[in-house]
Write a structure and sequence with these properties.
414 residues; alpha/beta; Molybdenum Cofactor Biosythetic Enzyme, Chain A; Alpha-Beta Plaits; Maf protein; 3 domains; six-stranded mixed beta sheet; five-stranded mixed beta sheet; 17 strands; globular
């Protein structure tokens, strides 16, 4: 089945927002064996929207559009879609009731302008929105389904998973492909390629995609076969061979984040952690607490940006700071030990560095970071990251979390 995606919104073309929807839609549809043949982004211009939808409906077996279903004057997708199929808009009382209920649940009256979200093209099927007020729509033109979905990612994702995927599977779309993810960190993409490429030719019916980010390098494995069972088997075998080549850099075999992996490891071991941060400004603690249930193993953290707070809150010695400086192996060690002692946790995790753009010296350049994990032993890593301030901070947080993972698993340092 050939599918086209049409993403609508001025903000996606002027740089105000980044399109998050296409990647999610394409990934989910690929998982069920569909072929995404084209994706376009168009502005909130009725003429441009109509051109894009008309073209997609003529060339694809199904079309998914996102965006333009709000209540402001630039939200015009529904009107254009209705015109394409020659349907008039009519008030749907059930949709109106749902929209009103969402406002009442927040304790505020529904603005009259939201009535427009209950106007539905005749003959369209409503896709309920459990996360917002704009319903999605399924409109068919000459047998080709057009899914008109909100642009808000959380709303769109729920409709893709809860309605679009089941609908397409019900249309006879067979799952003949399987997707697996191998996630690595602490190793550059070029080195990943060096390790993986020698075995790649032996991975039958397998396509590999390298997906680098500040968190690490993901390998996406897509396999196709005559049956779903066969595709899954091949994908699992390929993922296993790739993971073996990349140990010990693999932190997940799936879409888990490293903080989710740490949550599992800490929970299973009955251990707790506290963090001491300087250059990351709380990013490590923020990431750990993104995981539901993290209160069971995360005791808290200290953002000790100044040397004075490193001394008073973490017990770093004045002599250490004088002799070695705030960005040093010695200070990182004392920060990790200090937060562990004061929090009463099993592990203390610390990070200190120079995020830039100023503050570097020839001996301690911008991007220099020390991370430390204090458990039954103290592990410390000296790292140098390139890029701007945000990049250094994100890399540093990831490196700290990875050091804790290795400490929990007893993985030796290189």
């Amino acid at each position: 089945m050939r599918i086209e995606i049409v993403v609508i919104g001025n903000e996606l073309l002027d740089g105000s927002r980044v399109d998050q929807n296409t990647a999610y839609i394409a990934a989910r549809l690929t998982e069920i064996g569909a072929e995404v043949v084209r994706s376009v982004v168009v502005p909130d211009d009725p003429r441009r929207i109509e051109e894009a939808l008309k073209s997609a409906l003529l060339s694809a077996d199904a079309v998914v559009s996102t965006g333009g279903l709000g209540v402001t004057t630039d939200d015009r997708t529904k009107q254009v879609a209705a015109r394409l199929v020659g349907a008039r808009l009519a008030l749907d009382e059930r949709v109106l009731a749902r929209v009103r209920e969402r406002f009442e649940a927040r304790g505020v009256p529904m603005p009259q302008v939201n009535v427009s979200q209950a106007m539905v093209p005749a003959g369209a099927r409503v896709i309920d929105n459990d996360h917002g007020t704009a319903p999605g729509l399924l409109i068919e033109k000459e047998g080709v389904p057009l899914f008109v979905l909100p642009g808000v990612p959380v709303e769109m994702k729920a409709m893709i998973d809860g309605y679009v995927v089941p609908f397409l599977e019900g249309r006879g779309l067979r799952r003949l492909s399987a997707v697996r993810l191998v996630r690595t960190t602490g190793i550059p993409e070029s080195r990943v390629a060096e390790l993986v490429e020698p075995v790649a030719p032996a991975l039958v019916r397998t396509e590999l995609a390298y997906l680098p980010s500040r968190a690490g390098v993901d390998l996406k494995i897509v396999t196709k076969a005559a049956t779903l069972e066969e595709a899954v088997r091949i994908a699992e075998e390929s993922a296993e061979r790739i993971a073996e080549r990349l140990e010990p850099y693999v932190y997940a075999r799936g879409d888990q984040t490293i903080e989710e992996v740490l949550g599992y490891l800490l929970t299973m071991s009955g251990k707790t952690v506290a963090v001491a941060e300087s250059c990351t400004g709380g990013r490590v603690g923020w990431r750990i607490t993104r995981v539901a249930g993290s209160s069971a193993y995360f005791l808290g953290g200290v953002i000790a940006y100044s040397n004075a707070l490193k001394v008073s809150l973490l017990g770093v010695r004045d002599a250490t700071l004088s002799a070695y400086g705030a960005v040093s192996e010695e200070t990182a060690r004392e920060m990790a030990l200090g937060v562990r002692s004061r929090a009463g946790s099993d592990y203390g995790l610390a990070v200190t560095g120079i995020a830039g753009p100023d503050g570097g010296t020839p001996e301690k350049p911008v991007g220099l970071v020390y991370v430390a994990a204090a458990g039954s032993e103290v592990r410390i890593r000296r790292l140098r990251f390139l890029g701007g301030r945000d990049a250094v901070r994100e890399h540093a947080a990831q490196a700290a979390l990875e050091l804790l993972r290795r400490s929990l698993l007893g993985i030796a340092e290189e």
